Automatic annotation (TrEMBL):
InterPro entries xref list: Aminotrans_V_dom (IPR000192), PyrdxlP-dep_Trfase (IPR015424), PyrdxlP-dep_Trfase_major (IPR015421), PyrdxlP-dep_Trfase_small (IPR015422)
UniProt protein name: Uncharacterized protein
PANTHER family referenced in this protein's UniProt entry, alphabetically: AMINOTRANSFERASE CLASS V DOMAIN-CONTAINING PROTEIN, L-CYSTEINE DESULFHYDRASE
Top-level taxon of the source organism: Eukaryota
Organism (species): Owenia fusiformis (Polychaete worm)
Keywords attached to this entry: Pyridoxal phosphate
Length: 397
C-alpha cells in the first residue's frame, strides 16, 4: 500500500537524520528501513548455516532477484547478471573488447571519473590505441544540435571502436539523447556501451529494445537496493566477449556471459538477494513509476526555480528535454572567499555538510554549481534549508 510521499514516507520508511537536509541522492542512494531489515534477515540466515546458504539457498534468492531486476529493466534474464557497482561492470566490458592498434574508445569531457579511468586502463592494455573525448560545452541550444555535434565527431574520428554513452550523466547531470547517440554509433559500426549508473529507478527503460551493445546500471542508487548492487546487460551477440574483471571458477566455458559473473569467489550476496524487496518497495510503498516521477519531478523543478530566483543566478543552460529527471543544477551566487575551482568545489561541499546540508558542488566552466536531487522522501524544507545556508554564505539578505 502506497505511503504518502515526502515527510510521511521519510519518517516511516527511512533512517535519515533530521540534522541534515539531504539533496544528494545521486551520490550513494539510500536504503529504506524495510529493505535493510530484509538484508539483516539474510545476513542472519547466512550465519545460521553458512554452508546451506552458499550451497543451497543463495542460488534460489539470486535467481529470483535476477528475474525481478530483468522485469524492472525490460531485459531478458538470460542477458543480465549482477555486479557490485557500475564501475566494476563497465570495467569488465571495456577491458573485454579487443582493440587493435589505431582503435579508439570514445568518452566525453564529463564521463564519470572512474569510468574515464576505466577507458584509459582498457586502452592501455592494447598498444597504439587511444581514448578520445567528445567535448560538451554550455549552453546547449537543442537536443538536435547536440546529436549533430556528436555524429560530426564520430564522422571525424573513424577509428572509434567503442563509445561510452552516459544515459544520465553525473556532473553535470543531463539526460543525454542516448537513443540517438546509440543509433548513430551502431550505424557506423561502433559498439555502444551505455553507462546507466543513474537509470534504474529514475528512467523507465526496456533494455532489449535499447539498441545498444552493453548496459550497466546501479540498483543501489535510485531504486532502493542495498549498496553493492548493479546490473550488467550484454547483447546476446556479445556474450562470448564479455568476461568479469575478476577471473574465478567459471572460465573455460564457450559462452562465458552471464555465467562467469556468478561465482566470483566468496562474497556477500545479500544485496542482490534484496532486489525483489527493493523493487516491491518502489512499486508498493513509494507508489510506482507514475507517483515517484510526479513527486520527484515537481519537487526538483519547483526548487530549482526557487533557488535560482533566490540566488539571482541561473540553471544549467541545456534544453528542457535534456534535463535529468531527478537532478538539476543551480549556479551558486558569488560567495566571498570562494573561487570557481574544483578544489573549492570540494571544500565548499564539506562546508555545506558542516552546516547541515548535503548537496553536490562541482566546478563547471570555472563556476561553482550545486547539483540538487529529489526522491520520494524529500520535502520543501530540505531545499529551504539549503537556500538559507547559501544565502547566508553569500551575504544576501
Ligand atoms: C555516471 C556515473 N557512472 C558511473 C558511476 C559509478 O557508480 P558506482 O560508484 O556505483 O560504481 C557513477 C557514480 O555516481 C556515475 O554517476
Amino acid at each position: 500500500m502506497a505511503c504518502e510521499l515526502g515527510k510521511a514516507i521519510r519518517q516511516k520508511e527511512f533512517y535519515h537524520s533530521e540534522d541534515y537536509g539531504f539533496t544528494n541522492h545521486g551520490a550513494w542512494g539510500t536504503v529504506p528501513r524495510r529493505v535493510l531489515d530484509v538484508q539483516k534477515r539474510y545476513l542472519e540466515e547466512v550465519e545460521q548455516n553458512v554452508d546451506h546458504w552458499f550451497r543451497r539457498s543463495s542460488d534460489k534468492y539470486v535467481n529470483a532477484a535476477k528475474q525481478a531486476a530483468a522485469d524492472f529493466l525490460g531485459a531478458n534474464v538470460a542477458n543480465i547478471n549482477f555486479v557490485e557497482n557500475a564501475t566494476r561492470g563497465l570495467n569488465s566490458i571495456l577491458k573485454s573488447i579487443p582493440l587493435s592498434p589505431g582503435d579508439a574508445i570514445l568518452a566525453t569531457n564529463f564521463t564519470y571519473n572512474a569510468v574515464a579511468n576505466a577507458c584509459r586502463a582498457a586502452s592501455a592494455k592494447s598498444q597504439g590505441t587511444e581514448v578520445v573525448a567528445f567535448n560538451i560545452t554550455f549552453p546547449i541550444s537543442s537536443r538536435e544540435a547536440f546529436i549533430k555535434n556528436y555524429t560530426d565527431f564520430l564522422d571525424a574520428h573513424k577509428n572509434i571502436k567503442v563509445a561510452v554513452i552516459d544515459v544520465i550523466s553525473s556532473f553535470p547531470s543531463m539526460l543525454l539523447p542516448w537513443k540517438e547517440l546509440t543509433a548513430a554509433c551502431r550505424e557506423r559500426g561502433i559498439l555502444a556501451c551505455l553507462d546507466g549508473a543513474h537509470v534504474p529507478g529514475q528512467l523507465r527503460i526496456a533494455l532489449e529494445e535499447c539498441g545498444a551493445d552493453f548496459f550497466v546500471g546501479n540498483l543501489h542508487k535510485w531504486s532502493f537496493c542495498p549498496r553493492g548492487c548493479a546490473v550488467i546487460w550484454v547483447h546476446q551477440a556479445h556474450h562470448h566477449l564479455v568476461r568479469p574483471t575478476v577471473t574465478s571458477h567459471i572460465y573455460d566455458k564457450k559462452q562465458p556471459f552471464p555465467g562467469d559473473f556468478d561465482l566470483q569467489g566468496t562474497r556477500d550476496l545479500t544485496a542482490y538477494a534484496c532486489v525483489p524487496d527493493a523493487i516491491k518497495f518502489y512499486h508498493d510503498i513509494a507508489g510506482g513509476w507514475d507517483e515517484v516521477l510526479a513527486h520527484n519531478c515537481s519537487l526538483v523543478e519547483r526548487f530549482t526555480e526557487d533557488l535560482v530566483n533566490a540566488f539571482g543566478t541561473s540553471q544549467l543552460q541545456i534544453p528542457v528535454d535534456m534535463r535529468s529527471p531527478f537532478m538539476r543544477h543551480v549556479k551558486l551566487p558569488e560567495l566571498p572567499g570562494w573561487q570557481g575551482t574544483q578544489d573549492d568545489a570540494i571544500k565548499l561541499m564539506n562546508t555545506l555538510y558542516e552546516k547541515g546540508v548535503l548537496a553536490a558542488v562541482e566546478c563547471i566552466e570555472d563556476e561553482l554549481w550545486l547539483r540538487i536531487s529529489a526522491h520520494v522522501y524529500n520535502t520543501p524544507e530540505d531545499y529551504e534549508r539549503l537556500k538559507s545556508v547559501v544565502l547566508e554564505m553569500a551575504e544576501i539578505k
